[in-house]
Design a protein that fits this description.
Elements: H1 20-33, H2 42-45, E1 46-50, E2 56-61, E3 67-74, H3 88-95, H4 105-114, E4 118-123, E5 128-135, H5 139-152, H6 157-176, H7 179-191, H8 205-210, H9 213-223, E6 229-235, H10 239-250, E7 273-280, E8 285-292, H11 300-311, H12 317-325, E9 329-336, E10 344-352, H13 358-375, H14 379-397, H15 400-413, H16 422-427, H17 431-441, E11 447-455, E12 464-465
Parallel strand pairs: 2-6, 7-11
Antiparallel strand pairs: 1-2, 3-5, 3-6, 4-5, 7-12, 8-10, 8-11, 9-10
Helix pairs in contact: 1-14, 3-6, 3-9, 5-10, 11-14, 11-17, 12-13, 13-17
């Protein structure tokens, strides 16, 4: 529900409860690694360097497998876009694969493929990330490709026009023709009034139609500069051998102007908001969101645990009460992604069963929240949610690619060093902490409710909402 729209590819997904066997394996791995699995050792393993042109370089030597991931993260996304230009960050992501004077668009993917690699990208609200995954001995190829398109991207009118239509069609397929995604878009724009997170990462349709090649070139020159980027390299490489190559390839790229600062902040919500979307669908849908703080706030730890307790798996409260006991919905979950620069949303989602209404399901979810606010949670629930979070995190550390994604995302929104204290922060969450954040944030005046009203084919205009 609250996942950011993605571009060509997929990155590390938000936290979900792993299968039981995976959880056991992760827990055993965590026990073998001991307490320093993710805290206390990462700062020693990651090498941080800033080149003279402002490029932040993070290198992590990981000899477990003979692979490497080369990733470049630009600190720009939907958050930076003003009315009239929404979605332009995602459009530029597509154009980054159209080539340079030395490597054409077709050659880029073919070159990666011939060398046994994979490449892709994603655009989100706070950042845009690109990667190539190779055998470790191909690391210089990944660096060369990324340095080349950071400095020399070609944005021809012909390529722009053809890709423009591709992105417009992408919005139709991913948003306009998907009732759940359209409801999420309407809900987000209703809950967030001022700040840039209210806009869809793909863009509003009228803005998408109005883009120009010249605007795209300005966006590239403004944000795709070394001083607004993070280079992450993780894998079976040697830092001392790699840094001179990085300096040679990226060091000559000129520093760009300091990008415009995002000034707008979201004012406090002072009362419940509701939005209804009429759309062709078989069954209704229910989304409920509350404003919550981002990664740098200490409350992000108990909020993550709270999401696990309410909706983090088969035995979570929503699933047990609303799906199994009351049989009101086919699914009911909770979602919180703290990796944002500004405050964002903590959400619930549920799919009412045939014959059940969204309002019935909403009442049942609200009752569970109120019960938690009044009576708190058990130590068993608390520990189970912590175990799920820790297992997911340990799996991330066991992959060079996912480790690179974590470093890139954290550094893009705050600092990669926050990863060092992540598990300690989760482990320190108490029963009282969970109850406190539920009482503080999951309140009616801080809530937005979005309901999909299913209609028969041909009876609802496109995007009909009230």
């Amino acid at each position: 529900m609250l996942r950011d729209e993605r571009g060509r590819g997929t990155g590390l997904r938000g936290a979900k409860a792993p299968r039981f066997a995976q959880w056991i394996a992760a827990l055993l791995l965590s026990l073998m690694l001991g307490p320093p699995a993710c805290a206390g050792t990462l700062a020693e393993r990651v090498s941080e360097t800033t080149l003279a042109n402002g490029l932040k370089v993070l290198i992590l030597e990981d000899p477990k497998a003979p692979v490497v991931t080369v990733q470049v993260w630009y600190r720009v996304g939907g958050r930076n876009e003003l009315p009239g230009e929404t979605g332009i960050s995602h459009m530029l992501e597509h154009m980054m694969f159209k080539g340079t004077p030395t490597v054409s668009g077709k050659e880029f993917d073919a070159l990666v493929s011939r060398n046994g690699g994979e490449d892709n990208a994603e655009t989100q609200r706070d950042f845009t990330g690109y990667y190539e995954d190779f055998a470790a001995d191909r690391v210089e190829l990944g660096l060369r490709l990324e340095a080349d398109r950071m400095a020399n991207l070609l944005i021809s009118e012909e390529d722009y026009k053809s890709e423009h239509q591709v992105v417009i069609e992408e919005r139709r397929l991913r948003i306009d023709d998907q009732p759940a995604n359209l409801l999420s878009e309407v809900m987000t724009a209703t809950s967030i009034l001022a700040q840039g997170y209210r806009n869809p990462v793909l863009g509003w349709p009228s803005d998408m139609e109005a883009w120009t090649r010249e605007a795209l070139v300005r966006w590239y020159k403004t944000y795709y500069a070394p001083n607004d980027a993070v280079l992450v390299v993780v894998g079976a490489i040697k830092k001392d051998e790699l840094l001179p190559k990085i300096q040679s390839l990226f060091g000559a790229i000129p520093r760009g102007p300091d990008p415009p600062k995002v000034i707008t902040t979201e004012p406090p919500q002072l009362g419940e908001r509701r939005v209804y979307l009429r759309r062709e669908a078989e069954l209704p849908l229910l989304f409920v969101v509350h404003h919550v703080p981002p990664l740098t706030d200490p409350d992000s730890f108990p909020l993550s645990v709270l999401a696990g307790i309410l909706g983090g798996g088969e035995s979570a409260r929503f699933n047990q009460k609303v799906v199994y006991e009351k049989q009101l919905a086919s699914y009911a979950g909770a979602d919180y992604n703290p990796v944002h620069i500004d405050p964002f949303l903590f959400g619930f989602s549920a799919g009412p069963l045939p014959g059940k209404t969204a309002e019935e399901v909403e009442q049942a979810l609200t009752a569970e929240v109120e019960r938690l606010q009044k009576d708190g949670v058990t130590e068993r629930e608390l520990q189970k949610a912590k175990n799920q979070i820790e297992a997911d995190f340990v799996f991330s550390l066991d992959s060079a690619h996912r480790m690179g994604v974590l470093l890139g995302r954290y550094e893009s929104v705050a600092s990669w060093k926050l990863l060092d204290g992540y598990l300690d922060g989760v482990r320190k969450v108490t029963v009282a902490d969970v109850q406190r954040v539920a009482q503080k944030y999951l309140v009616p005046e801080n809530r937005t409710v979005a309901i999909l009203i299913p209609v028969k084919p041909g009876t609802a205009p496109a995007g009909a909402a009230k």
